[in-house]
Write a structure and sequence with these properties.
alpha/beta, Purple Acid Phosphatase, chain A, domain 2, binds manganese (II) ion
């Protein structure tokens, strides 16, 4: 039998969107499993009521955080100003907005000899959305090096991302690549459960060793999260509450 080094586990969370009850449920679950390294793939803020607290918690807990589209949009003043965005910006305050603006685009790790890349939406930028069930060639483009990801020597073997709020995994076996989406902690649009991923392997290791991706979905107090939004008189409360309860995107509510 080949002796392997002990395996490390890394949690990858994303799309918290100011939902602190969901974030706390996920962080408790991570801690209970004895996992100490957490990365966050962006969209800490917006949509939900507690953006400021979500930023402060993630900043304290996460080894690395990348910028999402909501983080990017919240960081700049709008012309003309959107009242909803303005509400979230006021909760955050100037120092947190500057923190969000300065977040990196992507993070590269080496795990069990595999190059793992983590970003929010796609290698094109935070605003280019790619669903998991796009054609094979489009899935493959998620592995390209671009000015946004930084032009590293090698393309990644594994890509993990957030943005779509739908967790899942695709094997691009013809190219020996794995694409996974970690889902959303605070605004899931697949099942009304807080979702995140766990990577297991030898961190920094170039040797061949086991590598796995696990998707975790866990119940949390959805009604507590809605109650916080009610208490804070958050704008766009109704569609938010319905999304949390049903995990159906507000634009699709009529058709599903
Ligand atoms: Mn998002």
């Amino acid at each position: 039998m080949v002796p392997f080094r002990a395996l490390d586990r890394t949690a990858v969370i994303s799309d918290i969107h100011g939902n602190v009850p969901a974030l706390e449920a996920v962080l408790t679950d991570i801690e209970r499993r004895g996992i100490r390294t957490v990365y966050c793939l962006g969209d800490l803020v917006g949509k939900g009521p507690q953006s400021a607290l979500a930023v402060d918690i993630c900043r304290g807990v996460c080894e690395g955080v990348v910028r999402g589209n909501w983080d990017d949009v919240a960081a700049r003043p709008q012309t003309p100003p959107s009242p909803t965005l303005q509400w979230h910006r006021e909760q955050l305050g100037e120092a947190r907005l500057r923190y969000l603006e300065a977040l990196p685009n992507s993070i590269d790790l080496l795990m069990s000899g595999k190059r793992v890349r983590l970003f929010h939406a796609s290698p094109e930028g935070v605003y280019t959305r790619v669903y998991l069930d796009v054609p094979y060639e489009r899935q493959l483009e998620m592995f390209t090096n671009t000015p946004f990801t930084g032009n590293c020597l090698d393309e990644p073997d594994v890509v993990g991302y957030g943005d779509i709020h739908v967790a899942g995994m695709v094997s691009l076996y013809r190219h020996r690549k794995t694409l996974f989406n970690v889902g959303s902690v605070g605004n899931p649009l697949d099942e009304p459960l807080a979702t995140y991923a766990i990577l297991e392997g030898v961190v920094g290791g170039t040797e061949k060793a086991p590598f796995s991706v696990q998707l975790v979905r866990l119940p949390y107090e959805v009604e507590d999260a809605i109650a916080v939004a009610v208490e804070m008189n958050m704008p766009e409360l109704k569609p938010y509450a319905k999304e949390l309860r049903t995990a159906v995107y507000r634009m699709d509510q009529g058709s599903r």
